[in-house]
Design brief:
The complex is a heterodimer of chains A (481) and B (474). Chain A is α+β, with helices and mostly antiparallel strands and 481 residues long. Chain A is 40% helix and 24% strand. In chain A, strands 13-12-11-14-15-16 form a six-stranded antiparallel beta sheet. Chain A has a five-stranded mixed beta sheet with strand order 4-3-2-1-5, covered by helices on one side. A five-stranded mixed barrel of chain A has the order 6-7-8-10-9. Chain B is mainly alpha-helical and 474 residues long. Chain B folds into four domains: 53 residues, no CATH class; 154 residues, no CATH class; 73 residues; 79 residues, no CATH class. Chain B starts with 5 loop residues before the first helix and ends in a 15-residue tail after the last helix. Classes of the chains: A alpha+beta (481), B mainly alpha (474).
């Protein structure tokens, strides 16, 4: 199995340290009821028992310096920890692999790969050739493209017509869902929003299910999040939270009905708010998308579980060389099924990379995809941040003006202090008397920032409380994660 | 010009909260034309809800009031000890993140202690996640760590009565947490046993039971016959736990009526056997007492061999027992009865006495005397004893067949059951490079132990064991 990647090579292939660590944990024979290798070639496969009822099937093939792999787990990290674990097993315990003819599922995978390669025209195939570190998804995406070019025109037209029909059906479904949503909100307003918290639980669940049925999962999640957030909010602020959130839903509903009259960015925002998705490949292929190539500092990674059984993984990036008028951020968001377990953050806070960030089209661009990345100088310092909180709050106002249902907006400020507040919470204060209360759940972790004097801070502001993401202090950087 | 006034919005807000069924929405005149376009479905309710909601988004709540900075927050950052060096800090973080749940707390505690005892203070940003393990060991915390505890426990930024707890004094020791209180009392006893006893005697009866318990346990330090009256008083205390502690401490009073007799009886259980006829003859005439193997012969009808209450060895340290038997401690350890509590009992006593040499001997015996290296769970007491094996002892352990088998066992199982990381916790800086070499063949399994080694190497200095005092119940 000399062609299989070495330990060093596996480390290079790993998408992040967390994946590598998880892979190392899996690189034990007890985790692999099945460990096999093919005859005379660098092909290994195995079955790894994950959290699901069925084991994940993992296959890795390495020929001529090219490593390709496939795993049946739902992870969006490529290669996933199972692939890394299998490769690590091969590098440290090659004797654990029994020789065997490949089973059907491995043969199928090989055949699919071979078929798609053969179907691609020579030039395209050359372009589609994944680099040694290319992920299976990238490889498959390029092969799909090649395959599409060789499809029968009649078939292509039929497929396109079907896609269009499905899209129209979904649009009709969504509009019907919006009608139900509007009616329900109007009912709530009629009954009075002061009592919303007490009576809404059951109704929200029912409507949320209906919205999922109506192909509007984005709205369903917003509705579910309202109930979850309601109980995390101090009682004095709950009524206003209900007004704001239902107002946001009503605005999205109205905006969606009138989307053709909206500017392009806001139209895309409202589509995503309802539940349409834009695939990574689509975004990266979009010539009009805003792209920023720069040095990026990973300032925070956060994981939260949503009511829709998805884990949301947020990575906040700060541009190390921003324009002169203020700090620039990008937010990478991934969703993984909760059933996949705690998959860990894709990046480590403080990590620095060089890369191109591509923003999703939006009236207030923030969410993005990382198109390319290469490691950069870890010791890169933060850019100069605006003094005080004023500019950050103005940024929130501007963003909320552009995209009224905005949930979070980053605030960057230099010369601020963490201070104790009369509510037994901490706050972020500037010299002008502006104080933003910090999220109560951060009090313990942020306590050591008390008494440190002036710091530079990055926070996510939701209009009510700030969630501190990171800080630069006299005794080094502080990270929330 | 503002189209809608604040009172317009407040009116809308109130109607939304009360319910438009009870308080119909009144469309402000400025919006009448716009509202004519409202959908038939909801009338003006949804547009006005949207407008009100958006207004609330821009209308930030009043800034909360800032409180005065608690004094301990300043103390947290003014501790004169240097902050742990960055490489060691990174290793500490790796330990926290990589250890298993079943014994992770003890490993993290051992690592956190190494930082403090090496003369450093923890980085303030690490304190929130270290506090769970560090706080119960209050006797080792420095000013910064205590300041953080006080800050975290402050209720609404108001600190509780008394001084910050790391400054336990004659005025506030009764209010201090148990570990800090006991450490204070023991230190006072070590400096001035008679004076401290005199003070304690006057207040003993008025103290709460938990404090009386610590007083009795503290009397074990530099104990003498002069302490006996106070111990006897405690032996008839109204609290059972104080009575029990007093009985245990009484067994340690040198020269107490039955102690000499009990010590002789315990020593008599260790006898030489073997060495052939010549050995027996030599022993009989007292020429060669060391000939033959020292073995333990339990007394007839012995109910318990333990060092605990009522046990054969109760109140004796291994050192004084060895002296009574007339053999080196190392030889006596080899002859100890194979009873589970015998070794830990003597170990706890040695730790309490700060007897580093005996701790070293017991640890080495545990690691090497058996036919296999002990699994992680059997090393817990030794790690808790804060022992650092000497360079020679570490070399002996790491080159032993027992240790090589242990590493192979861990690799085979695919996980460290604590064997590797607990061993790392017992090694000094000088032994760490050799340790890392022995576990080089266990990539992926030895993360925590590797991180521990990196921590120790990053600190660069070891802490001396001297002066360690510990309660029997710790």
């Amino acid at each position: 199995m000399t062609n299989l990647p070495s330990h060093d090579r596996i480390e290079q292939l790993a998408p992040d340290q967390a994946s590598l660590s998880a892979g190392l944990k899996l690189a034990k024979s007890v985790n692999w009821p099945v460990l096999m290798r093919g005859e005379g070639e660098a092909l290994i496969w195995g079955e790894c028992q994950g959290s699901g009822s069925a084991p994940y099937r993992v296959v890795v093939s390495a020929t001529a310096g090219e490593v390709v792999y496939k795993c049946t787990c739902p992870s969006r990290k490529l290669p996933c920890k199972h692939v890394l674990g299998l490769m690590l097993m091969a590098s440290v315990a090659a004797g654990s692999f029994a020789r065997s003819p490949p089973p059907d599922w491995v043969l199928d995978w090989q055949a699919r790969r071979g078929r798609k390669r053969a179907a691609a025209p020579p030039a395209a195939a050359a372009d589609a050739q994944p680099t040694p570190s290319a992920s299976l998804a990238e490889a498959m995406a390029s092969i799909d493209l090649a395959e599409a070019q060789s499809v029968d025109p009649k078939m292509a037209a039929r497929s396109e017509a079907q896609r269009q029909r499905l899209k129209e059906e979904r649009e009709a479904d969504i509009l019907a869902g919006l009608d139900e949503l509007d009616r329900w909100i109007a009912d709530q307003v009629s009954l009075g929003l002061a009592g919303f918290g007490k009576r809404a639980g059951e109704g929200v669940r029912t409507l949320s299910t209906r919205l999922v049925d109506r192909k509007a999962p984005g709205l369903a999640n917003r509705l579910d999040m309202l109930v979850a957030d309601l109980f995390k909010t101090p009682e004095a602020s709950r009524e206003d939270l209900v007004i704001e959130r239902l107002a946001g839903l009503a605005l999205i509903s109205a905006a969606y009905r009138n989307r053709d009259r909206l500017p392009f960015g806001l139209r895309e925002d409202v589509r995503r708010a309802v539940g349409w998705t834009m695939r990574r490949e689509e975004l990266l292929a979009d010539e009009n998308a805003v792209r920023i190539a720069s040095t990026w500092i990973m300032v925070a990674t956060r994981s939260s579980v949503q009511p829709n059984a998805l884990r949301r993984l947020d990575t906040w990036l700060l541009d190390a060389t921003p324009p002169t008028d203020g700090a620039r951020f990008a937010l990478l968001t991934d969703y993984v099924p909760v059933s996949a377990g705690d998959v860990g953050a894709p990046f480590v806070a403080g990590e620095v990379i060089s890369g191109e960030v591509v923003y999703y089209p939006s009236a207030a661009p923030l969410r993005a995809q990382l198109a390319t990345r290469t490691p950069a100088d870890r010791a890169r310092s933060w850019p100069a941040l605006p003094e005080g909180l004023g500019q950050g709050l103005a940024g929130w106002d501007a963003a909320a003006g552009q995209k009224p249902w905005i949930e979070l907006w980053p605030v960057a400020a230099g010369g601020v202090r963490v201070v104790p507040l009369n509510t037994a919470r901490l706050g972020l204060a500037d010299g002008a008397g502006v104080i933003l209360p910090l999220d109560a759940s951060q009090t313990d972790r942020a306590l050591p920032l008390l008494g440190l004097g002036a710091i530079a801070a990055l926070a996510a502001w939701d209009g009510r409380s700030a969630s501190l993401l990171a800080a630069q202090t006299a005794i080094g950087p502080w990270y929330a994660s | 010009m503002e189209v809608l006034t604040g009172s317009d919005f407040e009116g809308l807000r109130q109607a939304l909260l009360v319910g438009t069924a009870r308080r119909p929405l009144v469309v402000p005149p400025a919006l009448a034309t716009l509202m004519a376009d409202a959908t038939e479905l909801s009338g003006p309710a949804l547009p006005l809800l949207a407008l009100t909601g958006q207004r609330l988004r821009f209308e930030r709540p009043a800034f909360p009031a800032e409180q005065a900075l608690p004094e301990v927050a300043i103390r947290l950052h003014s501790d004169p000890r240097p902050i742990v060096p960055d490489p060691a800090r990174r290793a500490l973080v790796r330990i926290v993140e990589s250890v298993g749940r079943e014994w992770g707390g003890l490993v993290v505690l051992a690592a956190a202690r190494r930082v403090i005892t090496a003369g450093f203070r923890h980085h303030p940003f690490d304190l929130p996640r270290l506090m769970t393990v560090l706080k119960p060991q209050g006797d080792e915390l420095g000013p910064a760590e205590w300041a953080f505890v006080a800050l975290a426990e402050a209720n609404g930024w108001t600190l509780g009565p008394g001084r910050p707890r790391h400054e336990v004094t004659a005025d506030n020791w009764t209010e201090a947490p148990s570990v800090a209180r006991l450490t204070f009392l023991r230190q006072r006893r070590a400096l001035d046993p008679a004076g401290t006893r005199a003070v304690l005697e006057t207040v003993f009866s008025s103290l709460p039971a938990l404090v009386r318990l610590d007083v009795v346990n503290a009397l074990a330090i530099r104990i003498s016959l002069d302490d006996l009256p106070l111990i006897e008083r405690a032996a008839v205390d109204r609290s059972e736990m104080v009575k029990t502690a007093a009985a245990s401490v009484r067994a340690r009073v040198p020269g107490a009526p039955d102690r000499t007799k009990r010590l002789a009886a315990a020593a008599a259980c260790f006898q030489r056997e073997g060495g052939g006829v010549a050995g027996k003859l030599l022993r009989l005439v007292g020429i060669a007492s060391a000939v033959g193997t020292l073995t333990f012969v339990p007394p007839a009808g012995a109910s318990g061999l333990r060092q605990g209450r009522g046990g054969l060895f109760e109140g004796f340290s291994l050192r004084e027992l060895a002296a009574e038997v007339g053999v080196p401690v190392r030889e006596l350890v080899g002859a100890l009865p194979n009873e589970a509590a015998a070794l830990p009992g003597f170990l706890a006593r040695a730790v309490e006495d700060g007897d580093a040499s005996t701790i070293q001997t017991l640890t080495l015996f545990k690691l090497l005397a058996g036919d296999r290296y002990p699994p992680g769970v059997e090393l817990l007491d030794f790690v808790s004893s804060r022992i650092l094996l000497s360079e020679e002892a570490a070399a002996e352990v790491l080159s032993s067949a027992n240790w090589k088998d242990a590493v192979a066992r861990v690799i085979d199982k695919g996980r460290d059951d604590g064997t590797l990381v607990f061993t790392a916790a017992m090694l000094s800086v000088a032994a760490m490079t050799a340790f890392l070499e022995t576990i080089a063949s266990a990539p992926g399994i030895a993360q925590a132990s590797r991180a521990f080694a990196d921590l120790v190497l990053g600190l660069g200095v070891d802490a001396p064991l001297s002066g360690v005092v510990r309660t029997p119940g710790d």
